[in-house]
């Protein structure tokens, strides 16, 4: 029996070096995704609640403007992903519909940050799977296994408990936060329906490229009508605080970085990995916000949020096993 030749040490060393570089690259992407997600959330809170910049619609418009410009540069100039053209008016109408729903979710989330602590905002945001399951059933009649629906019970129960134990509870802020969460779930289901055919599918970066300018066109008149003194106050704040413009630009750039890193992490790992990381990200955001903004928390609030996150994790596992 002939023995196999010994492994080439240089080949093994090369493979080891390549795997280390890949691991370092993925770790860097995850760090970028975490810092962008948490950074934009905390900066939104700081600008809207602690800095006197009380214009959530205009802030969302700044985010979408940055996404439009940076998406164009990333796709057209830097060729990060191939450009996928819009093929028909019908497809454009679908993208515009998604853009309007997306605007509603982001604006609602930013409005809620004016009135609610980040920790409670994240607890309410954890109910996204619940609304996704509801909209998927109502719009596509898609049913999940009973175990999957059972996993949503602690998600909702956790938010109810957290609401009762939240010292900074604000009804209007809570309604806006729930509305934003529902709109986010509605957008994900609607996207699956509207862009489901092979000829119309767009990756998330191309979808953002087309959605962002539409969002700006929708948000600009809304900001001028509903926030009539936005330009005057923004310019005044810019003169009073020398870092105002820097914070606004950094915040808007982070909004794009969140979308870019989300796409890259999913591409180089998996959607399941992103879901697990997302659950942990919420907990990190909660702890960070408590340390930074010093908002009071109660045991009931902590217990409710923990229950919601555990329910989301169980829901994700149930969907994976019973699909």
Automatic annotation (TrEMBL):
The keyword Transmembrane helix applies. It is found in: Membrane. The chain crosses the membrane at residues 23-43, 55-80, 92-113, 119-139, 146-163, 169-186, 207-225, 245-265, 272-293, 299-318. It comes from the Eukaryota. It is a multi-pass membrane protein. Keywords: Membrane, Transmembrane, Transmembrane helix. Its main location: membrane. One of its GO terms (cellular component) is membrane. Residues 26-315 form the Sugar phosphate transporter domain. The keyword Transmembrane helix applies. This is Sugar phosphate transporter domain-containing protein. It comes from Hevea brasiliensis (Para rubber tree).
């Amino acid at each position: 029996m002939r023995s196999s030749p010994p492994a080439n040490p240089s080949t093994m060393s090369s493979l080891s070096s390549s795997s280390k570089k890949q691991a370092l690259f993925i770790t860097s992407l995850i760090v970028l995704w975490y810092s962008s997600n948490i950074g934009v959330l905390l900066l939104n809170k700081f600008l809207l609640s602690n800095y006197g910049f009380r214009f959530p619609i205009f802030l969302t418009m700044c985010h979408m403007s940055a996404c439009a410009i940076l998406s164009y540069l990333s796709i057209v100039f830097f060729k990060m992903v191939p450009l996928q053209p819009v093929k028909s008016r019908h497809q454009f109408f679908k993208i515009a519909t998604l853009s309007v729903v997306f605007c509603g979710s982001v604006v609602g989330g930013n409005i809620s940050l004016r009135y609610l602590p980040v920790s409670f905002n994240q607890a309410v945001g954890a109910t996204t799977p619940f609304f996704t399951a509801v909209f998927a059933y109502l719009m596509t009649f898609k049913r999940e296994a009973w175990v999957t629906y059972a996993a949503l019970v602690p998600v909702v129960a956790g938010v109810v408990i957290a609401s009762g134990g939240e010292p900074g509870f604000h009804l209007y802020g809570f309604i806006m936060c729930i509305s934003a969460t529902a709109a986010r779930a509605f957008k994900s289901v609607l996207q699956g329906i509207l862009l489901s055919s092979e000829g119309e599918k767009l990756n998330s970066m191309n979808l953002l490229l087309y959605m962002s300018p539409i969002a700006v066109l929708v948000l600009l008149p809304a900001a001028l009508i509903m926030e009539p003194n936005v330009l005057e106050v923004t310019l005044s704040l810019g003169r009073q605080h020398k870092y105002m413009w820097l914070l606004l630009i950094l915040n808007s750039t982070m909004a794009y970085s969140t979308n870019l890193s989300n796409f890259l992490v999913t591409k180089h790992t998996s959607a399941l990995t992103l879901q697990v990381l997302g659950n942990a990200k919420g907990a990190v955001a909660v702890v960070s916000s408590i340390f930074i903004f010093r908002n009071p928390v109660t045991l009931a609030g902590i217990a409710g949020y923990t229950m919601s996150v555990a329910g989301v994790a169980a829901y994700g596992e149930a969907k994976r096993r019973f699909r």
